[in-house]
Design goal:
With about 750 residues, the protein is an alpha+beta fold. The protein has 3 domains: about 240 residues, Beta-galactosidase, Chain A, domain 5; about 300 residues, Alpha-Beta Barrel (TIM Barrel); about 120 residues, Golgi alpha-mannosidase II (Immunoglobulin-like, Sandwich). The chain is about 20% helix and about 30% strand. The chain has 14 helices and 38 strands. Strands 6, 7, 8, 9, 11, 12, 14, 15, 19 and 20 form a 10-stranded antiparallel beta sheet that branches. Strands 21-22-23-26-27-28-29-30 form an 8-stranded parallel barrel, surrounded by 5 helices. A hairpin with a 2-residue loop joins strand 11 and strand 12. Helix 11 packs antiparallel against helix 12. The structure holds (2R,3S,4R,5S)-2-(hydroxymethyl)piperidine-3,4,5-triol. The site of (2R,3S,4R,5S)-2-(hydroxymethyl)piperidine-3,4,5-triol has 11 residues, from loops.
Length: about 750
């Protein structure tokens, strides 16, 4: 890791672990030269810049320098209106109504470490040696607008963190209309875009398609990062695969409206930009005021999509997630939502906890319906006091009963919402997002509290603090179940209304910062109807997210696989639920459901008393197995082996310990194949020179014991390979035959343990 500066040439060479990022100041404009595999530092790098005179439709900001045109120059933070006709990185309106600004290089500073971004989530360092930051200063002399571009490089990660900081040093008001976190101009367009799209219950499915002249735009205008589009975009060479080739990832550390764009221009250069969605954004900068954009984590991988994912996994696991739970294994939980929905009382909850105890489950999570008069989703959000009929002894009484069953106690809340039928709404009808005189559009009978208002956030902090302190609560599930409409604030002046969506996020982040600081022992899990806000911003405050409301094991293969493109398994909540599955009504075996859920933060979400004795035995085995592998799953390196988005949907992945002495492999056969070919599962990430002993997993063991719903689908595999040992190179080059797995929806898991050669 090093930041080289050649002042005479105006050349900046940022080396982050094994990647290089290079730009050069040309006539005051920072021009992008290179991003990719690491290069030696050398003055000859300046020759990368190629200026060639084009036709008269390429204007010249410096008349004497005809080859220089902003419309063709690859740039670091391009501006609007001064002869670059591509997507600008920012736009600002001056007091006179004009929208022309011209940022020119005005200096730089390099500092060890990485600064905090005030009020925003961001990747961090624990020692200054881990990173170095370049501050590149740009200034519009006429208006006084100063922009600092921040670039952080890391010793241990091939990633660059970028953001922009705006300050009005002049004497007039400036209105930012767009302020992207970063813009990068790549020198050609031979790329495909890879991104994660979906909907409620089928989040983060992988899309991959060619770039072509014109713009590909990914965005959310829903007030949250959304189920529909994750704040992530990667460009990759068409020949890039899971394991090979150049991949460039852009992951925005933000939970609100975002936009990401890849624009191929006339000379086949590609401009990528990502940041807050300008469609519902503006920011008024009075003299002396500033604005910080969210940060984007840009990852280069020369080792395909898998290499990119593992960089994100490590960085997000170790230096985005925070708090004492970051490095601790997560508890195995039972959640009552799909077991009871709103229909429960303290006795029923205690009975569920009683069922969970002998299985080895560690935490009981009381979901929606414990407060106000909430017996369905029509009322009570905002009334964070106990439902008297359901919990006559309050939360503390219930927590005590759950604790007596040997389980920790966790609680669901949805603090950002208010039901029109609630005491809170009757007291403060103006506390929700709304526009004067307009309908307040309800979704699931709820409105959204205006978290851009300090008093609303203070109220929530006080109210939730009391709830969290009222009982021995060790876990909180923080839900958010609708998109934003009528985004306006009763408190903001008319010329700041367009700041509301972003101010809401700042209010939310501040509230989460205060609560997580006040309750450091609580493990927080975020949720938004499942994965509607599965983004790096939320992970900064809450180290895990409920991946999807879809608990069907087969659907989960695609959801968890797609999610793993950016996010590590330690961030994904994954539960065994009942069949027929409540979302898709599919029947799958208990063993398969366990095997899929074990590749995340494992738990159960069903009525345990309805299980057969065999299923209970199997559940106890699953819990015991997960306890053995959870540090591997939650802290190991993940390698994807087979994609559910290809072929017949068979899926496989594995987790390898850092020292390569242990691995856990999961293979899922979606549909049986008649008279199919021999299929071998080749593994990854092992030490080629180590010998590994294979131990068949719970699904196989369960099948052997004949547990209900667990066909003996893996007997051939078990007989052939169980207990045997193989060299790592053989497992990775030749693999193990898995085609003998029987039936649809079959699974197979096994562990590998390094043994003496
Ligand atoms: C949506 C969540 O994703 C579910 O798990 C559950 O908590 C419900 N909300 C409760 O309303």
């Amino acid at each position: 890791m090093k930041i080289h500066v050649d002042e005479a040439l105006g050349l900046f060479h940022l080396q982050s672990k094994d990647s290089s990022y290079i730009f050069q100041v040309v006539e005051g404009y920072p021009a992008h030269l290179y991003w990719g595999a690491q290069l030696n530092h050398d003055a000859g790098l300046a020759h990368i810049l190629e200026l060639r005179e084009r036709c008269s439709f390429s204007p010249n900001p410096v008349p004497a320098n005809r080859p220089l045109s902003l419309d063709t120059l690859p740039q670091e933070y391009p501006q609007y209106g001064t002869s670059d006709f591509r997507q600008p990185a920012y736009q600002a309106q001056l007091d006179d109504g004009s929208r022309i600004t011209e940022l020119k290089y005005s200096g730089y500073r390099i500092a060890p470490g990485k600064p905090k971004l005030t009020g925003l989530p961001a990747v961090y360092t624990e020692s200054e040696k881990e990173a170095a930051t370049l501050y590149l200063y740009l200034k519009d002399e006429y208006s006084g607008l100063k922009v600092t571009l921040l670039y952080t490089v890391f010793a241990e990660h091939s990633a660059i963190a970028r953001s922009a900081f705006f300050e009005q040093e002049g004497s007039a008001i400036i209105r930012l209309e767009q302020a992207m976190s970063a813009s990068v101009d790549l020198s050609d367009s031979r790329y495909q875009a890879l991104y994660l799209s979906g909907a409620w219950a089928r989040e983060r499915h992988i899309q991959r398609r060619d770039l072509a002249p014109g713009a590909l735009r990914l965005e959310s205008r829903r007030g949250s990062s959304s189920h529909q589009m994750n704040p992530f975009l990667a460009l990759l060479r068409p020949e890039a695969t899971e394991d090979h080739g150049d991949v460039y990832g852009f992951s925005l550390v933000y939970s609100g409206n975002f936009a990401a764009q890849a624009e191929v221009e006339q000379f086949n250069q590609t401009r990528v930009s990502i940041g807050i969605n300008p469609s519902d954004f503006s920011w008024k900068l009075e003299p002396g005021q500033s604005f910080q954009t969210p940060e984007v984590i840009m990852v280069y991988s020369g080792e395909g999509i898998g290499g990119m994912s593992r960089t994100y996994h490590r960085l997000y696991r170790q230096r985005l997630c925070r708090g004492k739970h970051r490095d601790q294994v997560r508890p195995i939980l039972i959640n009552n939502w799909e077991a009871t929905y709103f229909n429960f009382d303290a006795d029923k909850i205690e009975a569920l906890a009683q069922e969970a105890r002998p299985l080895g489950i560690e935490l009981f999570v009381l979901d929606d319906g414990w407060f106000g008069k909430r017996d369905n989703d029509d009322s009570s959000l905002g009334d964070w006091f106990e439902h008297e009929r359901k919990l006559p002894e309050g939360l503390s009484g219930l927590a005590k009963r759950v604790n007596e069953q040997g389980l920790q106690f966790g609680l669901w809340v949805e603090p950002e919402m208010v039901s029109p039928d609630s005491e809170l709404y009757r007291q403060h009808p103006d506390w929700c997002l709304h526009a004067p005189g307009r309908r307040r559009t309800e979704a699931r009978s709820q409105l959204i509290l205006d978290l851009s208002r300090e008093e609303v956030c203070d109220y929530l902090y006080d109210t939730l603090s009391k709830v969290f302190a009222s009982a021995p609560i060790t876990y909180v599930k923080w839900d958010m179940n609708r998109n934003m409409t009528e985004i306006a604030s009763a408190q903001a002046p008319s010329d700041r209304q367009k700041e509301t969506a972003h101010r809401y996020m700042l209010g939310l982040y501040d509230l989460l910062e205060r609560l997580t600081t006040s309750f450091p022992d609580i493990l927080f899990e975020s949720c938004s109807g499942g994965g509607g806000r599965f983004d790096p911003g939320m992970l900064y405050y809450m180290p895990q997210t409920w991946t999807s409301d879809d608990t069907d094991a087969i659907e989960r293969l695609a959801i968890q696989y797609g999610t793993s493109i950016v996010y590590p398994a330690s961030t994904m909540g994954a539960h065994v639920s009942a069949v027929p599955n409540h979302q898709v009504h599919r029947m799958t075996s208990f063993a398969l459901r366990g095997d899929v859920a074990m590749s995340g933060n494992f738990g159960y979400e069903l009525d345990l008393s309805s299980l057969s004795q065999e299923e209970k035995t199997l559940a106890a085995r699953q819990v015991a197995q997960y306890k053995e592998i959870r540090s591997l799953v939650q802290q190991g390196e993940m390698y994807r082996l087979l994609s559910p988005f290809e072929g017949r949907g068979d899926t496989a992945w594995m987790f390898v310990s850092e020292d390569q002495s242990e691995a856990f492999v999961a293979f899922f056969r979606v549909l049986a194949e008649p008279n199919g070919p021999i299929r071998r599962l080749t593994l990854k990430g092992l030490d080629p020179n180590k010998r590994y002993k294979l131990e068949a997993g719970v699904s196989a063991a369960a099948a052997a014991s004949g547990a209900k719903g667990s066909a003996d689908d893996a007997s051939a595999f078990r007989e052939a390979f169980g207990g045997q040992s193989f060299m790592g190179d053989q497992l990775m080059r030749i693999g193990l035959v898995v085609s003998d797995l029987q039936g649809d929806f079959a699974s197979l898991t096994f562990r590998l343990q390094a043994v003496e050669a």
